[in-house]
Design goal:
Elements (H helix, E strand, L loop, with lengths): L21 E11 L4 E6 L6 H4 L2 E5 L12 E10 L5 E5 L5 H5 L5 E5 L20 E3 L5 E10 L4 E7 L2 E6 L5 E5 L4 E4 L2 H4 L4
Parallel strand pairs: 7-12
Antiparallel strand pairs: 1-2, 1-6, 2-5, 3-4, 3-6, 4-5, 7-8, 8-9, 9-10, 11-12
Length: 196
């Protein structure tokens, strides 16, 4: 898992769409070959979680992108990283290209207890959700409602008085992150609010 981020703060990495006990760590991008292997993109490119986990929870998506209600628990029979940062994974019971194709777009999650813990002073991205956003003077600005990756960086979605404000999780916009006191400092929230 990536456990380092800007200003020594929490790191971009797993998502937590289904409760604090399970973290979304990546997505199946496509089948690999004819024997049922798949390519998995991990949200944290430095992660070696697939090398260490015995099983993951996979949630398939339908044609409209809606995730299935119940995840499927799949054992990992083999996993290897590739130079482009994706992983080639062999799941137990997925033995053909058709089986692998049925997993295209599925999210891959793991129980938090099965993942390595973050280092001291660091935390998982999902731990940012719910933090109170304050300005440098300590004035409340809102609450972090969500975190997503826009391809360039993680983005905090702050539920502010005037609606949701997207805050890139970079040094220029986010100051101190204090998970113990459940707050983080947004340096320039007003500049990030879109014009009406």
């Amino acid at each position: 898992m990536r456990e380092s981020g800007p200003h020594g703060a929490p790191a971009p990495g797993p998502r937590n769409p289904s409760g604090r006990g399970v973290l979304e760590i990546g997505v199946v991008t496509r089948p690999q070959g004819l024997r049922g292997e798949v390519r998995v993109h991990l949200y944290n490119r430095e992660s070696t979680a697939l090398d260490e986990l015995e099983a993951v929870l996979v949630r398939r998506r339908d044609e409209d992108g809606v995730a299935s209600a119940e995840p499927l628990k799949l054992g990992i029979e083999g996993a290897r990283s590739t130079p482009d940062g994706t992983w080639i994974v062999a799941f137990a019971g997925v033995v053909s290209r058709n089986d692998a194709e049925s997993l295209r777009g599925a999210t891959v999650s793991a129980r938090r207890a099965d993942l390595p813990g973050p280092d001291e002073g660091e935390l998982y991205v999902e731990d940012l959700v719910g933090l109170q956003a304050v300005d440098p003077g300590g004035r409340p600005l809102g609450v972090v409602r969500d975190v997503y990756d826009n391809g360039a960086q993680e983005v905090l979605v702050v539920a502010a008085e005037r609606g949701d404000v997207e805050v890139p999780f970079v040094d220029a916009h986010v100051g101190e992150v204090d998970p113990e006191n459940r707050r983080l400092v947004i340096l320039d929230l007003e500049a990030l609010i879109p014009e009406p």
